[in-house]
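Help! Submission page says 'invalid entity' but I think these are all valid:
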Amino acid sequence: MAKFARKGKGGTPAISTASLPDIVFMLLFFFMTVTTMKEVDLKVQISKPKATEVKKIENKALVKYINIGVPITKYQSKFGKEPIIQLNDAFAKVRDIGPWVDAVRSDMDAENRSKMTTALKIDKNAKMGIVTDVKQELRKAKALKITYIADKTTKDEFN
Amino acid sequence: MARRPLQEINAGSMADIAFLLLIFFLVTTTMSTNTGMQRKLPPPPEKKEQKDIDVKERNVMVVLINKDNNIAIKGRPIQLKDICEKTKIFFTNPNNDENLPEKKIKEIPFFGKYPVSKGVVSLQTDRNTNYEKYLQVNNELVRAVNELRDEKAMQKFGKPFDELEKEKQKAISEIYPLNISEAEPRRIAAGAGK
């Protein structure tokens, strides 16, 4: 019966859990800071072009994205293999851009509306046809500030 | 049986370790930020029938990219790496060449009367032009203007353009405006740029 007696008395001492909150908070903070809120799942494949004259995108609240690229594999049977537009979470046609700009604008604060920037995230293998169409629509919708998303590269790599 | 009471592990330093890790991760993780090339689109045409503004031929540099991604400036084929230099010469016109843009005397803060180029770069693409090529050419044109601005800033204020005050930047931007116009889309003859 020695077995039972031992279990009752000594055993392993309880590990202090005083630091557990710290660890949890650490993890929490870590994930809070690192996670960039991904608002949309990309349904199109985009490999970004490279450029030298690029600037960091500041004030993310004012930047709205238009993605253009070839649909990912599981959508290819339905939407084909040509580059198409993705607005928010859904595929869209060129004519949807005007209403989309209006909707996005009305969601913004009044003083920020004029500062809205449309970021064109376009696959480098896309053709200018679709890009020009989108730009024409943006002009019509008076969303004139645009930025072409591109990765920064050095001058030597570029040429 | 006399037992030594088991000591509790000192957990006081745990918090320090936790914070150390936290700071480590904070410093090392780079949040993926997007970078982009900022441009402005021209405002939509006011009336349906808008007359094209008359611009003298010498003031326009037409940059064509055709469907085969060949580049031509003023009808002559050109390599991507030569565009920047060509654009800079176009905007500065150092020898007042008759075939390069005219200059207009303008009153500019810090500089006084300064001859500003009337040159406009017109970038035209075909519907089948590759977007990457277009962006590269666009990049070269923007780079030409940025380099000119930097040179001017260094010469006048001894600092690169980005480090100048707002007003000085504005003055230099007036000397070297980013005059890139993108024509309405159209089909470009297959022969161009070969």
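Support: the input was valid. A stray whitespace character was the problem, and the output above is from the cleaned input. The helical segments of chain B are 14-28, 80-92, 131-157, 166-175.
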